[in-house]
Amino acid sequence: MGVSAFAGMTKRESIKTKSMDPFLLEWLNILVRWGHLVAGIAWIGTSFYFVALDLSLRKANAMPQGVMGEAWEVHGGGFYHVQKYVSAPPDLPPNLIWFKWEAYLAWITGFLLLIIQYYIQADLYLVDPSVMALTSWQAIGISVGSLLAGWFIYDQLCKSPLGKHTGWLALSVYALIIAAAYGFSHVFSGRGAFIHVGAFVGTLMAANVFAVIIPNQGKITASLLKGEVPDVKYGKIGKQRSLHNTYLTLPVLFMMTSNHYAIITGNAHAWALVGLVVLGGGIARHFLLRHEVGDEMGEIAWTIPVIALALIGAMFLTQPTQGPALAMKVTDDEAFAIVKNRCSACHAANPTDATIKQAPKGIVFASIDDMKRYAKQIETQAVRNHAMPMGNKTGMLQEERDKLGAWIQAQ
Ligand code: HEC
Fold it and tell me: What is the mean pLDDT of the chain?
């Protein structure tokens, strides 16, 4: 562990500092991230496929007993003829394929990634003392607690009388997600907050599969094995949750990727953007699936302006605030001193930060020329947004951001 040249900087140490090699941690990170993407793609693929299949079912003249509709599909050189049984076929087929591991693995790899990136390096990625001065363990406790509480509240909402009214239920779940976004952004760093909105919703989705959809399918198969007629309600409940999942999928993907963009994670109003993204993403899902199953453009055209408005609204919300007054004169030496003081603990050939062992993204501010080269990025990361210094670990002041901004504008 390096000895920091800057007072106060070594106080916040990450949990792993002494035990884990940064090189191995990075490899672990990329391998788990890869797995997470693969599992996520598989899950979303099957989830969208089955909702589209459901919507495309049509009645036919001679359908076996218990079948509510069928679909013909063509793919990969062959034709498929699929039939859906309202609750279950009269006899349990021998080779029943369950789709559950896509969801379980997406959640497991996602949670591992949360540990690798945000728990082990909580000081860097999760905590921002200017938002709330948490220790790493406090932040981790809040993280785990909020994911559990989120599932509990959501599940109770679905089971309550509200659950029978699709519109009201959708509105309450929507409000729950926005409240979570607001809460996270007042507890965690910008990046920490946004990844938690993603993790919060992703956890609801995975728990839907684990705790509701699959157990209900289990009950249906169990009563079939006993020779009883399964209760239709189990199928209906599962259907409701799986429908929720498809509406939440696209917004979740936005939350996860938005983490790499300072314009979003470094913006103070970003939590409000969540409402617009859930709206736009949910309606985009409606458009995609209804289009896929052959709805006329006239029936779904309304979605396009709504999606566009939601996204324009999101852009508007994250608009950079007014830049600093040009009148302020800041010399090269002054600007370099600020960067040296607030950035070089990490962005140096040999970082002195407790967690960072290599200049992040290879960005080193060793001279005024380096600063000029990276001027645009410095402006995005540290002036117009507060994404840098990461977790404001070096305690950068607003006045210093303004000065850097004035210096950059004068270049
Ligand atoms: C505590 C460590 C730390 C400090 C201090 C710090 N950074 Fe960073 N910086 C990082 C990390 C970690 C990343 C990589 C983030 C990622 O992987 O997305 C990064 C990335 C960046 C990037 C590239 C962003 C991108 O996505 O392309 C820029 C530009 C940057 N920092 C500028 C600054 C400036 C300017 C300062 C000082 C005002 C600063 N940083 C202070 C840790 C730090």
Answer: 89
